[in-house]
Description:
The structure holds two protein chains of two kinds. Chain A is an alpha/beta fold. The radius of gyration of chain A is 21 Å and the shape is elongated. Chain A has a seven-stranded parallel sheet. A five-stranded parallel sheet of chain A has the order 15-14-16-17-18. Chain A has a three-stranded antiparallel sheet with strand order 8-9-10. Chain A is 26% helix and 28% strand. Chain A has two domains: 4-188, HUPs (Rossmann fold, 3-Layer(aba) Sandwich), CATH 3.40.50; 211-332, TPP-binding domain (Rossmann fold, 3-Layer(aba) Sandwich), CATH 3.40.50. Chain A is built from eight helices and 18 strands. Chain B has one domain: HUPs (Rossmann fold), CATH 3.40.50.620. Chain B is 26% helix and 32% strand. A nine-stranded mixed sheet of chain B has the order 9-8-7-10-6-1-4-5-11, sandwiched between helices. Chain B has a two-stranded antiparallel ribbon with strand order 2-3. Chain B is globular and about 65 Å long. Chains A and B meet through helix 2, helix 3, strand 7, strand 9 and strand 10 of A and helix 3, helix 4, strand 7, strand 8 and strand 9 of B. Strand 18 (309-312) of chain A pairs parallel with strand 13 (227-230) of chain B.
Amino acid sequence: MADVLAFLERREGRLGANAREVMSVAARLAGGSGGSAHALLLGAPGASTEAAELGRFGAAIVSVGEHEALADYHPDAYAAVLADRVREGGPQGAYGAVLFSASVLGRDLAPRVAALLDVPLATDATGVEIVDGRVRVVRPIYSGKAFATLEMDAAPALVSLRPNAFTPTETAAAGELRTFSPEVDPSSWRVRLIERKQAAASEVDVAEASVIVSGGRGMKDPSHWDLLEKLRDALGPGVALGASRAVVDAGWRPHSEQVGQTGKTVAPKLYFAVGISGAIQHLAGMRTAKTIVAINRDADAPIFAVANYGVVGDLFEILPRLTEEIAALKAGS
Amino acid sequence: MQIIVCLKRVPDTETRIRVDSSGTRVDSTGVKWVVSPYDEYALELALRAKEGAGAGEVALVSFGDASAQEVLRKGLAMGADSAVLLTGEPTMDGLATAKTLAAELKDSPAPLVLFGVRAADDDQQQVGPMFAVLTGRACVTGVASFSVQGDVVTCEREVERGSEVIEVRLPAVLTVTKGEHEPRLASLKGIMAAKKKPLVEKPAVAHPARVQLKALAEPPPRPAGRVVGQGADAVPELVRLLREEAKAI
Protein backbone atom coordinates (compact mmCIF):
# COMPACT_ATOMS: atom_id res chain seq x y z
CA MET A 1 0.00 0.00 0.00
CA ALA A 2 1.52 3.24 -1.07
CA ASP A 3 0.30 6.66 -2.02
CA VAL A 4 1.78 8.36 -5.07
CA LEU A 5 2.42 12.09 -5.34
CA ALA A 6 2.38 13.95 -8.66
CA PHE A 7 4.12 17.32 -8.84
CA LEU A 8 2.28 19.34 -11.47
CA GLU A 9 3.73 22.29 -13.23
CA ARG A 10 2.00 25.54 -13.95
CA ARG A 11 3.04 27.59 -16.89
CA GLU A 12 1.85 31.10 -17.69
CA GLY A 13 -0.92 30.82 -15.15
CA ARG A 14 -2.24 27.50 -16.41
CA LEU A 15 -1.58 23.83 -15.79
CA GLY A 16 1.37 22.62 -17.85
CA ALA A 17 0.68 20.58 -20.98
CA ASN A 18 1.90 17.37 -19.34
CA ALA A 19 0.00 17.70 -16.04
CA ARG A 20 -2.78 15.32 -17.11
CA GLU A 21 -0.29 12.68 -18.22
CA VAL A 22 1.63 12.83 -14.93
CA MET A 23 -1.58 12.77 -12.86
CA SER A 24 -2.97 9.81 -14.80
CA VAL A 25 0.22 7.79 -14.30
CA ALA A 26 0.19 8.61 -10.57
CA ALA A 27 -3.42 7.39 -10.35
CA ARG A 28 -2.59 4.16 -12.17
CA LEU A 29 0.41 3.41 -9.93
CA ALA A 30 -1.50 4.25 -6.74
CA GLY A 31 -4.51 2.18 -7.83
CA GLY A 32 -2.28 -0.81 -8.56
CA SER A 33 -0.67 -0.71 -5.12
CA GLY A 34 -3.77 0.00 -3.03
CA GLY A 35 -2.98 3.63 -2.32
CA SER A 36 -4.29 6.93 -3.56
CA ALA A 37 -2.87 9.57 -5.88
CA HIS A 38 -2.21 13.12 -4.74
CA ALA A 39 -1.43 16.23 -6.74
CA LEU A 40 0.81 19.07 -5.61
CA LEU A 41 0.93 22.48 -7.27
CA LEU A 42 2.78 25.63 -6.25
CA GLY A 43 1.92 29.16 -7.27
CA ALA A 44 0.73 32.61 -6.32
CA PRO A 45 -2.48 33.04 -4.27
CA GLY A 46 -5.35 32.01 -6.52
CA ALA A 47 -3.41 29.17 -8.16
CA SER A 48 -5.89 26.68 -6.70
CA THR A 49 -8.62 27.79 -9.11
CA GLU A 50 -6.93 25.87 -11.92
CA ALA A 51 -6.51 22.73 -9.90
CA ALA A 52 -10.14 21.62 -9.85
CA GLU A 53 -9.97 19.60 -13.06
CA LEU A 54 -7.23 17.34 -11.69
CA GLY A 55 -9.74 15.19 -9.87
CA ARG A 56 -10.90 13.99 -13.27
CA PHE A 57 -7.44 12.56 -13.87
CA GLY A 58 -7.39 10.62 -10.64
CA ALA A 59 -6.21 12.95 -7.86
CA ALA A 60 -7.83 12.05 -4.54
CA ILE A 61 -6.27 15.12 -2.92
CA VAL A 62 -5.09 18.22 -4.75
CA SER A 63 -2.74 20.29 -2.54
CA VAL A 64 -1.94 23.80 -3.66
CA GLY A 65 0.83 25.76 -1.96
CA GLU A 66 0.17 29.45 -2.43
CA HIS A 67 2.68 32.27 -1.88
CA GLU A 68 3.40 35.47 -3.80
CA ALA A 69 7.05 34.45 -4.18
CA LEU A 70 6.05 31.13 -5.81
CA ALA A 71 4.28 32.77 -8.77
CA ASP A 72 7.29 31.95 -10.97
CA TYR A 73 9.44 28.86 -10.70
CA HIS A 74 12.36 29.32 -8.33
CA PRO A 75 14.61 26.25 -8.00
CA ASP A 76 15.59 26.54 -4.33
CA ALA A 77 12.14 27.63 -3.13
CA TYR A 78 10.23 24.98 -5.08
CA ALA A 79 12.67 22.23 -4.10
CA ALA A 80 12.46 23.12 -0.39
CA VAL A 81 8.64 23.28 -0.28
CA LEU A 82 8.27 20.08 -2.28
CA ALA A 83 10.80 18.18 -0.15
CA ASP A 84 8.90 19.24 2.99
CA ARG A 85 5.60 17.98 1.59
CA VAL A 86 7.14 14.67 0.55
CA ARG A 87 8.66 14.22 4.02
CA GLU A 88 5.21 14.71 5.54
CA GLY A 89 3.92 11.84 3.41
CA GLY A 90 0.34 10.91 2.59
CA PRO A 91 -2.46 9.47 4.73
CA GLN A 92 -0.79 6.06 4.50
CA GLY A 93 2.68 7.24 5.47
CA ALA A 94 5.66 7.63 3.14
CA TYR A 95 4.92 8.06 -0.54
CA GLY A 96 5.88 5.10 -2.70
CA ALA A 97 6.72 7.33 -5.63
CA VAL A 98 6.85 11.00 -6.54
CA LEU A 99 6.32 11.84 -10.21
CA PHE A 100 7.38 14.84 -12.28
CA SER A 101 7.18 15.77 -15.94
CA ALA A 102 10.60 15.60 -17.63
CA SER A 103 10.08 19.18 -18.83
CA VAL A 104 12.81 21.82 -18.47
CA LEU A 105 11.34 22.65 -15.05
CA GLY A 106 11.01 19.00 -14.00
CA ARG A 107 14.57 18.23 -15.10
CA ASP A 108 15.81 21.15 -13.01
CA LEU A 109 13.65 20.51 -9.95
CA ALA A 110 13.56 16.71 -9.49
CA PRO A 111 17.34 16.18 -8.91
CA ARG A 112 17.37 18.90 -6.26
CA VAL A 113 14.43 17.31 -4.43
CA ALA A 114 16.08 13.89 -4.70
CA ALA A 115 19.30 15.21 -3.13
CA LEU A 116 17.40 17.03 -0.36
CA LEU A 117 15.50 13.84 0.50
CA ASP A 118 18.44 11.49 -0.13
CA VAL A 119 16.42 9.29 -2.50
CA PRO A 120 17.25 8.20 -6.06
CA LEU A 121 15.73 9.63 -9.24
CA ALA A 122 15.07 8.09 -12.65
CA THR A 123 14.58 10.73 -15.34
CA ASP A 124 12.71 10.80 -18.63
CA ALA A 125 10.82 7.51 -18.14
CA THR A 126 8.79 6.11 -21.01
CA GLY A 127 7.37 3.34 -18.80
CA VAL A 128 6.80 3.03 -15.05
CA GLU A 129 5.12 0.46 -12.80
CA ILE A 130 5.25 -0.75 -9.22
CA VAL A 131 6.22 -4.43 -9.01
CA ASP A 132 6.24 -6.08 -5.55
CA GLY A 133 6.37 -2.68 -3.92
CA ARG A 134 9.34 -1.50 -5.98
CA VAL A 135 9.27 1.14 -8.66
CA ARG A 136 10.38 -0.18 -12.01
CA VAL A 137 11.18 2.26 -14.79
CA VAL A 138 11.92 1.94 -18.49
CA ARG A 139 13.89 4.86 -19.86
CA PRO A 140 15.78 5.61 -23.04
CA ILE A 141 19.56 5.90 -22.84
CA TYR A 142 22.00 7.01 -25.54
CA SER A 143 19.16 9.33 -26.63
CA GLY A 144 16.95 6.40 -27.52
CA LYS A 145 19.50 4.06 -29.11
CA ALA A 146 18.75 1.68 -26.22
CA PHE A 147 16.23 1.31 -23.38
CA ALA A 148 17.17 0.50 -19.79
CA THR A 149 14.90 -1.20 -17.26
CA LEU A 150 15.74 0.06 -13.79
CA GLU A 151 14.56 -1.04 -10.37
CA MET A 152 14.59 1.55 -7.61
CA ASP A 153 15.17 0.51 -4.03
CA ALA A 154 13.84 3.49 -2.08
CA ALA A 155 10.64 5.02 -0.76
CA PRO A 156 9.81 7.30 -2.24
CA ALA A 157 11.43 6.73 -5.62
CA LEU A 158 11.46 9.86 -7.75
CA VAL A 159 10.60 9.52 -11.44
CA SER A 160 10.23 12.09 -14.19
CA LEU A 161 8.11 11.17 -17.21
CA ARG A 162 8.92 11.93 -20.81
CA PRO A 163 6.37 14.34 -22.31
CA ASN A 164 3.93 12.68 -24.75
CA ALA A 165 4.99 9.16 -23.74
CA PHE A 166 1.87 8.49 -21.61
CA THR A 167 -1.83 8.83 -22.36
CA PRO A 168 -4.05 10.79 -19.95
CA THR A 169 -7.01 8.80 -18.62
CA GLU A 170 -10.14 10.40 -17.23
CA THR A 171 -12.02 8.96 -14.27
CA ALA A 172 -15.33 9.88 -12.69
CA ALA A 173 -13.78 10.73 -9.32
CA ALA A 174 -13.57 14.26 -7.93
CA GLY A 175 -10.55 15.28 -5.88
CA GLU A 176 -10.57 17.17 -2.62
CA LEU A 177 -8.86 20.56 -2.88
CA ARG A 178 -6.58 21.69 -0.02
CA THR A 179 -4.59 24.89 -0.01
CA PHE A 180 -1.63 25.61 2.25
CA SER A 181 0.72 28.55 2.81
CA PRO A 182 4.36 27.47 2.70
CA GLU A 183 7.05 29.59 4.29
CA VAL A 184 9.22 31.18 1.65
CA ASP A 185 12.06 33.61 2.26
CA PRO A 186 13.16 35.29 -1.00
CA SER A 187 15.89 37.23 0.83
CA SER A 188 17.88 33.99 1.09
CA TRP A 189 17.75 33.27 -2.66
CA ARG A 190 21.07 32.94 -4.43
CA VAL A 191 19.53 32.61 -7.89
CA ARG A 192 17.52 35.38 -9.49
CA LEU A 193 15.59 35.49 -12.77
CA ILE A 194 16.49 38.78 -14.49
CA GLU A 195 14.78 38.47 -17.83
CA ARG A 196 12.71 36.02 -19.84
CA LYS A 197 13.14 36.12 -23.60
CA GLN A 198 10.10 34.44 -25.03
CA ALA A 199 9.67 33.02 -28.49
CA ALA A 200 6.43 33.83 -30.34
CA ALA A 201 3.31 33.05 -28.31
CA SER A 202 1.95 30.49 -30.76
CA GLU A 203 5.09 28.37 -30.71
CA VAL A 204 5.28 25.05 -28.89
CA ASP A 205 8.58 23.61 -27.73
CA VAL A 206 9.85 20.79 -29.92
CA ALA A 207 10.24 18.50 -26.88
CA GLU A 208 6.54 18.77 -26.06
CA ALA A 209 4.87 19.13 -29.45
CA SER A 210 2.46 16.47 -30.70
CA VAL A 211 3.45 17.24 -34.30
CA ILE A 212 6.94 18.28 -35.47
CA VAL A 213 8.02 19.64 -38.85
CA SER A 214 11.82 19.26 -39.08
CA GLY A 215 14.18 20.54 -41.73
CA GLY A 216 17.73 19.55 -42.66
CA ARG A 217 20.49 20.38 -45.12
CA GLY A 218 18.18 19.58 -48.02
CA MET A 219 16.37 22.86 -47.33
CA LYS A 220 19.48 24.44 -48.90
CA ASP A 221 19.16 27.86 -47.25
CA PRO A 222 17.75 29.25 -43.98
CA SER A 223 15.50 31.58 -45.99
CA HIS A 224 13.56 28.53 -47.22
CA TRP A 225 12.24 27.85 -43.70
CA ASP A 226 9.08 29.80 -44.61
CA LEU A 227 8.02 26.64 -46.49
CA LEU A 228 8.21 24.65 -43.24
CA GLU A 229 6.48 27.43 -41.29
CA LYS A 230 3.59 27.34 -43.77
CA LEU A 231 3.24 23.58 -43.36
CA ARG A 232 3.37 24.02 -39.56
CA ASP A 233 0.62 26.66 -39.68
CA ALA A 234 -1.54 24.51 -41.98
CA LEU A 235 -1.31 21.59 -39.53
CA GLY A 236 -2.91 23.69 -36.79
CA PRO A 237 -1.99 24.41 -33.15
CA GLY A 238 0.49 22.34 -31.12
CA VAL A 239 2.98 21.98 -33.97
CA ALA A 240 6.69 22.79 -33.51
CA LEU A 241 9.57 23.27 -35.90
CA GLY A 242 12.57 20.96 -35.50
CA ALA A 243 16.01 20.84 -37.08
CA SER A 244 18.86 18.44 -37.81
CA ARG A 245 22.26 18.89 -36.20
CA ALA A 246 23.79 19.93 -39.54
CA VAL A 247 21.58 23.01 -39.88
CA VAL A 248 22.03 23.96 -36.21
CA ASP A 249 25.82 23.63 -36.52
CA ALA A 250 25.63 25.78 -39.66
CA GLY A 251 23.84 28.47 -37.63
CA TRP A 252 20.63 28.27 -39.70
CA ARG A 253 18.45 27.34 -36.75
CA PRO A 254 18.74 27.65 -32.92
CA HIS A 255 19.95 24.73 -30.79
CA SER A 256 16.58 24.73 -28.99
CA GLU A 257 15.08 23.20 -32.17
CA GLN A 258 17.69 20.46 -32.61
CA VAL A 259 16.38 16.89 -32.60
CA GLY A 260 18.86 14.10 -31.91
CA GLN A 261 21.59 13.05 -29.53
CA THR A 262 23.05 16.49 -28.81
CA GLY A 263 19.61 18.07 -29.04
CA LYS A 264 16.19 16.91 -27.91
CA THR A 265 14.76 13.43 -27.96
CA VAL A 266 11.14 13.62 -29.02
CA ALA A 267 8.09 11.36 -29.12
CA PRO A 268 5.44 13.19 -31.16
CA LYS A 269 2.40 11.60 -32.81
CA LEU A 270 3.56 12.83 -36.19
CA TYR A 271 7.08 13.76 -37.38
CA PHE A 272 7.91 15.29 -40.76
CA ALA A 273 11.60 14.91 -41.75
CA VAL A 274 12.13 17.25 -44.68
CA GLY A 275 15.50 17.25 -46.42
CA ILE A 276 16.97 15.21 -43.55
CA SER A 277 19.06 12.20 -44.56
CA GLY A 278 18.77 10.49 -41.16
CA ALA A 279 22.15 10.33 -39.43
CA ILE A 280 22.24 7.77 -36.60
CA GLN A 281 22.22 10.46 -33.90
CA HIS A 282 19.14 12.10 -35.50
CA LEU A 283 17.26 8.80 -35.83
CA ALA A 284 17.97 8.09 -32.14
CA GLY A 285 16.21 11.32 -31.20
CA MET A 286 12.97 10.80 -33.15
CA ARG A 287 12.50 7.09 -33.72
CA THR A 288 9.81 6.78 -31.06
CA ALA A 289 7.54 9.12 -33.05
CA LYS A 290 4.27 7.33 -33.78
CA THR A 291 4.17 8.22 -37.47
CA ILE A 292 7.19 9.42 -39.47
CA VAL A 293 6.94 11.11 -42.86
CA ALA A 294 10.15 11.59 -44.87
CA ILE A 295 10.59 13.87 -47.86
CA ASN A 296 14.00 13.62 -49.51
CA ARG A 297 15.56 13.72 -52.94
CA ASP A 298 17.84 10.76 -52.25
CA ALA A 299 15.89 7.49 -52.37
CA ASP A 300 18.75 5.76 -50.52
CA ALA A 301 18.69 8.15 -47.52
CA PRO A 302 18.58 6.20 -44.21
CA ILE A 303 15.53 8.21 -43.12
CA PHE A 304 13.37 6.18 -45.54
CA ALA A 305 14.15 3.00 -43.58
CA VAL A 306 12.26 4.34 -40.54
CA ALA A 307 9.62 6.45 -42.31
CA ASN A 308 6.08 5.07 -42.30
CA TYR A 309 5.48 7.18 -45.38
CA GLY A 310 8.23 8.41 -47.67
CA VAL A 311 8.04 10.67 -50.69
CA VAL A 312 11.11 10.77 -52.93
CA GLY A 313 11.67 13.96 -54.86
CA ASP A 314 12.20 17.70 -54.86
CA LEU A 315 11.02 19.08 -51.53
CA PHE A 316 10.55 22.52 -53.08
CA GLU A 317 7.77 21.04 -55.24
CA ILE A 318 6.43 18.61 -52.65
CA LEU A 319 6.19 20.95 -49.63
CA PRO A 320 3.91 23.63 -51.16
CA ARG A 321 1.59 20.93 -52.52
CA LEU A 322 1.51 19.17 -49.14
CA THR A 323 0.75 22.44 -47.34
CA GLU A 324 -2.03 23.18 -49.81
CA GLU A 325 -3.63 19.73 -49.49
CA ILE A 326 -3.48 19.77 -45.69
CA ALA A 327 -4.89 23.30 -45.52
CA ALA A 328 -7.76 22.23 -47.79
CA LEU A 329 -8.40 19.18 -45.63
CA LYS A 330 -8.43 21.23 -42.41
CA ALA A 331 -10.73 23.83 -44.00
CA GLY A 332 -13.15 21.08 -45.03
CA SER A 333 -13.20 19.20 -41.72
CA MET B 1 39.43 31.96 -9.95
CA GLN B 2 39.54 28.21 -10.09
CA ILE B 3 36.88 26.51 -12.23
CA ILE B 4 36.31 22.77 -11.95
CA VAL B 5 34.89 20.94 -14.96
CA CYS B 6 33.56 17.38 -14.63
CA LEU B 7 34.15 15.21 -17.70
CA LYS B 8 32.70 11.81 -18.60
CA ARG B 9 33.96 9.32 -21.15
CA VAL B 10 31.08 8.13 -23.37
CA PRO B 11 30.60 6.41 -26.75
CA ASP B 12 30.73 8.80 -29.70
CA THR B 13 27.24 10.00 -30.67
CA GLU B 14 27.64 8.52 -34.17
CA THR B 15 28.18 5.06 -32.65
CA ARG B 16 25.55 2.38 -33.09
CA ILE B 17 24.70 0.95 -29.66
CA ARG B 18 24.39 -2.84 -29.41
CA VAL B 19 23.44 -4.78 -26.30
CA ASP B 20 25.75 -7.72 -25.58
CA SER B 21 24.66 -11.27 -24.70
CA SER B 22 24.47 -10.48 -20.96
CA GLY B 23 21.44 -8.28 -21.70
CA THR B 24 22.68 -5.65 -19.26
CA ARG B 25 25.77 -4.26 -20.97
CA VAL B 26 26.61 -2.39 -24.13
CA ASP B 27 28.83 -4.29 -26.54
CA SER B 28 31.97 -2.16 -26.59
CA THR B 29 33.40 -3.79 -29.73
CA GLY B 30 34.26 -1.08 -32.23
CA VAL B 31 32.94 1.70 -30.00
CA LYS B 32 34.80 4.99 -30.33
CA TRP B 33 35.02 6.85 -27.02
CA VAL B 34 34.89 10.62 -26.63
CA VAL B 35 34.43 13.34 -24.03
CA SER B 36 30.65 13.65 -23.53
CA PRO B 37 29.73 16.51 -25.92
CA TYR B 38 28.02 18.72 -23.33
CA ASP B 39 31.02 18.33 -21.00
CA GLU B 40 33.15 19.63 -23.86
CA TYR B 41 30.92 22.70 -24.16
CA ALA B 42 31.34 23.21 -20.41
CA LEU B 43 35.13 22.97 -20.73
CA GLU B 44 35.13 25.45 -23.62
CA LEU B 45 33.18 28.00 -21.51
CA ALA B 46 35.56 27.45 -18.58
CA LEU B 47 38.61 28.03 -20.77
CA ARG B 48 37.03 31.18 -22.23
CA ALA B 49 36.25 32.48 -18.73
CA LYS B 50 39.87 31.91 -17.68
CA GLU B 51 41.20 33.59 -20.83
CA GLY B 52 38.77 36.49 -20.44
CA ALA B 53 39.91 37.08 -16.87
CA GLY B 54 43.56 36.70 -17.85
CA ALA B 55 44.10 34.56 -14.76
CA GLY B 56 42.79 31.50 -13.01
CA GLU B 57 42.89 27.78 -13.32
CA VAL B 58 40.74 25.10 -14.91
CA ALA B 59 40.80 21.74 -13.10
CA LEU B 60 39.20 18.56 -14.45
CA VAL B 61 37.54 15.72 -12.57
CA SER B 62 36.31 12.43 -13.98
CA PHE B 63 34.73 9.41 -12.30
CA GLY B 64 35.24 6.17 -14.20
CA ASP B 65 37.63 3.36 -14.93
CA ALA B 66 41.30 3.84 -15.83
CA SER B 67 40.43 4.42 -19.48
CA ALA B 68 38.86 7.77 -18.50
CA GLN B 69 42.47 9.02 -18.42
CA GLU B 70 42.22 9.58 -22.17
CA VAL B 71 39.37 12.10 -21.87
CA LEU B 72 41.25 13.93 -19.12
CA ARG B 73 44.37 14.08 -21.32
CA LYS B 74 42.21 15.48 -24.11
CA GLY B 75 40.82 18.14 -21.75
CA LEU B 76 44.36 19.01 -20.63
CA ALA B 77 45.38 19.27 -24.29
CA MET B 78 42.48 21.68 -24.91
CA GLY B 79 43.93 23.91 -22.18
CA ALA B 80 42.89 22.71 -18.73
CA ASP B 81 45.62 22.91 -16.07
CA SER B 82 45.22 19.77 -13.96
CA ALA B 83 43.09 16.67 -13.66
CA VAL B 84 41.89 14.13 -11.11
CA LEU B 85 40.58 10.70 -12.04
CA LEU B 86 38.41 9.05 -9.41
CA THR B 87 38.61 5.40 -10.31
CA GLY B 88 35.47 3.39 -9.82
CA GLU B 89 32.36 2.24 -11.59
CA PRO B 90 29.55 4.79 -12.03
CA THR B 91 26.07 3.26 -11.82
CA MET B 92 22.58 4.25 -12.93
CA ASP B 93 22.11 5.92 -9.53
CA GLY B 94 22.98 9.54 -10.24
CA LEU B 95 22.77 10.46 -6.55
CA ALA B 96 25.50 7.91 -5.75
CA THR B 97 27.67 9.52 -8.45
CA ALA B 98 26.93 13.00 -7.08
CA LYS B 99 27.98 11.81 -3.60
CA THR B 100 31.24 10.41 -4.97
CA LEU B 101 32.05 13.76 -6.60
CA ALA B 102 30.93 15.67 -3.49
CA ALA B 103 33.21 13.54 -1.30
CA GLU B 104 36.16 14.64 -3.45
CA LEU B 105 35.18 18.28 -3.88
CA LYS B 106 33.24 19.25 -0.74
CA ASP B 107 36.19 21.16 0.72
CA SER B 108 37.32 22.58 -2.62
CA PRO B 109 37.59 26.38 -2.59
CA ALA B 110 36.73 26.53 -6.32
CA PRO B 111 33.86 29.01 -6.66
CA LEU B 112 32.54 27.51 -9.90
CA VAL B 113 31.93 23.88 -10.84
CA LEU B 114 30.70 23.06 -14.36
CA PHE B 115 28.98 19.95 -15.68
CA GLY B 116 27.54 19.11 -19.08
CA VAL B 117 23.75 19.47 -18.93
CA ARG B 118 23.59 15.70 -19.39
CA ALA B 119 25.90 12.82 -20.22
CA ALA B 120 25.50 11.47 -23.75
CA ASP B 121 25.31 7.87 -22.46
CA ASP B 122 22.81 7.62 -19.56
CA ASP B 123 21.07 10.94 -20.33
CA GLN B 124 20.23 11.19 -16.62
CA GLN B 125 20.54 14.94 -16.36
CA GLN B 126 20.72 14.91 -12.59
CA VAL B 127 24.28 14.73 -11.20
CA GLY B 128 25.01 18.49 -11.50
CA PRO B 129 22.05 19.82 -9.48
CA MET B 130 22.38 16.94 -6.96
CA PHE B 131 26.06 17.77 -6.45
CA ALA B 132 25.07 21.43 -5.92
CA VAL B 133 22.61 20.51 -3.14
CA LEU B 134 25.13 18.15 -1.50
CA THR B 135 27.87 20.79 -1.46
CA GLY B 136 25.65 23.76 -0.56
CA ARG B 137 26.18 25.56 -3.87
CA ALA B 138 23.58 27.42 -5.91
CA CYS B 139 22.84 25.87 -9.31
CA VAL B 140 21.64 26.93 -12.75
CA THR B 141 20.90 24.23 -15.35
CA GLY B 142 20.97 24.38 -19.15
CA VAL B 143 23.37 27.33 -19.40
CA ALA B 144 24.37 28.31 -22.96
CA SER B 145 26.78 31.10 -21.93
CA PHE B 146 27.85 32.95 -18.81
CA SER B 147 29.96 35.86 -17.59
CA VAL B 148 31.46 36.47 -14.15
CA GLN B 149 31.52 39.86 -12.37
CA GLY B 150 32.79 39.73 -8.81
CA ASP B 151 30.83 37.04 -7.02
CA VAL B 152 27.87 37.09 -9.44
CA VAL B 153 27.58 34.95 -12.56
CA THR B 154 25.12 36.06 -15.25
CA CYS B 155 23.84 33.07 -17.23
CA GLU B 156 21.85 32.70 -20.42
CA ARG B 157 19.68 29.64 -19.84
CA GLU B 158 17.86 27.66 -22.51
CA VAL B 159 14.21 26.91 -21.66
CA GLU B 160 11.12 25.82 -23.59
CA ARG B 161 10.26 28.36 -26.27
CA GLY B 162 13.00 30.83 -25.45
CA SER B 163 15.67 31.68 -22.93
CA GLU B 164 16.17 33.25 -19.51
CA VAL B 165 18.82 35.53 -18.06
CA ILE B 166 19.68 34.30 -14.56
CA GLU B 167 22.01 35.78 -11.97
CA VAL B 168 23.58 33.42 -9.47
CA ARG B 169 25.86 34.15 -6.54
CA LEU B 170 29.07 32.15 -6.14
CA PRO B 171 29.86 29.47 -5.13
CA ALA B 172 27.78 27.85 -7.85
CA VAL B 173 27.28 24.88 -10.13
CA LEU B 174 26.32 25.42 -13.77
CA THR B 175 25.22 22.67 -16.14
CA VAL B 176 26.12 23.65 -19.68
CA THR B 177 24.26 23.09 -22.93
CA LYS B 178 25.33 23.73 -26.51
CA GLY B 179 25.87 27.44 -27.08
CA GLU B 180 27.44 29.50 -29.79
CA HIS B 181 31.04 28.49 -28.99
CA GLU B 182 32.18 25.19 -30.49
CA PRO B 183 34.74 23.36 -28.33
CA ARG B 184 38.26 24.09 -29.55
CA LEU B 185 40.44 21.41 -31.08
CA ALA B 186 43.58 20.50 -29.19
CA SER B 187 46.68 21.90 -30.90
CA LEU B 188 49.86 19.85 -31.29
CA LYS B 189 51.49 22.17 -28.75
CA GLY B 190 48.55 21.58 -26.40
CA ILE B 191 48.86 17.81 -26.78
CA MET B 192 52.58 17.95 -25.99
CA ALA B 193 52.01 20.24 -22.99
CA ALA B 194 49.24 17.96 -21.67
CA LYS B 195 51.74 15.15 -21.17
CA LYS B 196 53.50 17.22 -18.51
CA LYS B 197 50.37 18.47 -16.70
CA PRO B 198 49.40 16.82 -13.41
CA LEU B 199 46.91 13.97 -13.69
CA VAL B 200 46.25 12.36 -10.33
CA GLU B 201 44.52 9.01 -10.10
CA LYS B 202 42.87 7.86 -6.87
CA PRO B 203 40.13 5.47 -5.86
CA ALA B 204 36.65 6.97 -5.74
CA VAL B 205 34.64 6.95 -2.52
CA ALA B 206 31.95 4.45 -3.50
CA HIS B 207 28.30 4.88 -2.52
CA PRO B 208 25.86 1.99 -2.81
CA ALA B 209 23.55 2.26 -5.81
CA ARG B 210 19.83 2.20 -5.02
CA VAL B 211 18.98 2.01 -8.71
CA GLN B 212 19.67 -1.39 -10.27
CA LEU B 213 19.94 -1.97 -13.99
CA LYS B 214 17.76 -4.99 -14.70
CA ALA B 215 17.86 -5.10 -18.48
CA LEU B 216 19.05 -3.24 -21.55
CA ALA B 217 17.25 -3.54 -24.84
CA GLU B 218 17.67 -2.15 -28.29
CA PRO B 219 14.70 -0.05 -29.37
CA PRO B 220 11.76 -1.95 -30.80
CA PRO B 221 12.15 -2.15 -34.57
CA ARG B 222 9.97 0.17 -36.60
CA PRO B 223 7.92 -1.33 -39.41
CA ALA B 224 9.91 -1.33 -42.65
CA GLY B 225 9.91 2.03 -44.35
CA ARG B 226 7.45 2.52 -47.16
CA VAL B 227 7.78 4.92 -50.06
CA VAL B 228 4.41 6.32 -51.08
CA GLY B 229 5.60 7.71 -54.39
CA GLN B 230 7.73 10.18 -56.27
CA GLY B 231 7.41 13.95 -56.36
CA ALA B 232 4.45 16.24 -55.77
CA ASP B 233 2.05 13.84 -57.47
CA ALA B 234 2.43 11.50 -54.47
CA VAL B 235 1.09 14.14 -52.09
CA PRO B 236 -2.66 13.34 -52.34
CA GLU B 237 -1.95 9.67 -51.54
CA LEU B 238 0.34 10.71 -48.63
CA VAL B 239 -2.38 12.94 -47.20
CA ARG B 240 -4.99 10.20 -47.61
CA LEU B 241 -2.76 7.70 -45.76
CA LEU B 242 -2.02 10.18 -42.98
CA ARG B 243 -5.73 10.79 -42.53
CA GLU B 244 -7.27 7.37 -43.07
CA GLU B 245 -4.55 4.87 -42.14
CA ALA B 246 -2.34 6.66 -39.58
CA LYS B 247 -5.18 8.92 -38.36
CA ALA B 248 -2.44 11.45 -37.73
CA ILE B 249 -4.08 14.56 -39.23
